[in-house]
Amino acid sequence: MLHRINLLLALASTASAVCNESTLRLATDRYVASQTTGSLQWLGDELSNGTTYLENGKAVALASNQTAFSLPLRVDYRQTIFDTTQCASFTSLVDSDAVAPRVIGAQLWLVDDKVTKIDRIVTTPGDWLFNATGTLYYSLREDWGVIPPEKRDSRATIKAAADAYFDVFKNASVPVPWGTPCARLEGGAYTGRGLPTDSCNVGVIQSFDMPNRRYVIDETVGAVSVFVEFGSIGNAPDSHLFRVEGGRLRFIHTMTYCEKKPNCGFSFSRPGAGGAGIAS
Ligand SMILES: *[C@@H]1O[C@H](CO)[C@@H](O)[C@H](O)[C@H]1NC(C)=O
Ligand SMILES: *[C@@H]1O[C@H](CO)[C@@H](O)[C@H](O)[C@H]1NC(C)=O
Ligand SMILES: *[C@@H]1O[C@H](CO)[C@@H](O)[C@H](O)[C@H]1NC(C)=O
Ligand SMILES: *[C@@H]1O[C@H](CO)[C@@H](O)[C@H](O)[C@H]1NC(C)=O
Ligand SMILES: *[C@@H]1O[C@H](CO)[C@@H](O)[C@H](O)[C@H]1NC(C)=O
Fold this sequence. Notes:
six-stranded mixed β-sheet, 280 residues, alpha+beta, binds 2-acetamido-2-deoxy-beta-D-glucopyranose, 32% strand
């Protein structure tokens, strides 16, 4: 009898660990609704009692009138990836409003059908190469479509490509699976020229660790979102989104919060273009 109860308990805990994809999608849509309305109430039922809320790497209290959500966001561009293994999603939102533009990345984490953590990188003018119009423009030109099942990389391959990219900032000998072509969208600045030879291998500032990595992986689109403390720019709170095709890096999008120091204290001779490749 005891064995039988233990077995039932084991089955129950396994069952609760299964991710309900429709709930994950619903919670993510409600998160977007809370951004567009500027009101957290739309997330209400989806939140667990002790939801952890991080903004630019810092824990903040989650309140119904949370200021971080209080300014309604116009969605000019939305991209979401779903990680049904970890029950998490990552959403990019771009509001290219002339007065209050914002580019936000959000990782949502669910346990037992409830949102237990919302981790966001929120960027505005002054953040790393910020240009919401540029982010919108280039994001709309890229193909992040579903990859046919027989051509998909494994989660491990996708994660390894992202890790190699971060590790080379510390160790120049790490082999990075650069794709060709590859384009980097850093803030709103783009390295791609639309040529078959476009490269993302345009230099990095060494020698820095990239700690506190949080991954959301969606193998259906070959994508991994990594939130990280960006070592070579003062451990700035950072979001990188990678598209991996055939094990190689194809697209890289970044959002980096600069703690109110324009461009995190870096200056470029050609703002909006010169920074791409210097640090991230
Ligand atoms: C997922 O959640 C929805 C909404 O609560 C529910 O209707 C559905 O049955 C669940 N699916 C599974 C596979 O548990
Ligand atoms: C959350 O807290 C409220 C009030 O404290 C309680 O009524 C509710 O049952 C709790 N929900 C869960 C899922 O624990
Ligand atoms: C948010 O709620 C707190 C506590 O109820 C209140 O003191 C504060 O004025 C509210 N802020 C806004 C912007 O409504
Ligand atoms: C922002 O990006 C847009 C679209 O690429 C471009 O036209 C504009 O010049 C950029 N602004 C700055 C300040 O770089
Ligand atoms: C640097 O990377 C290379 C290639 O992966 C590896 O062989 C080497 O041990 C690494 N060096 C350090 C100090 O980690």
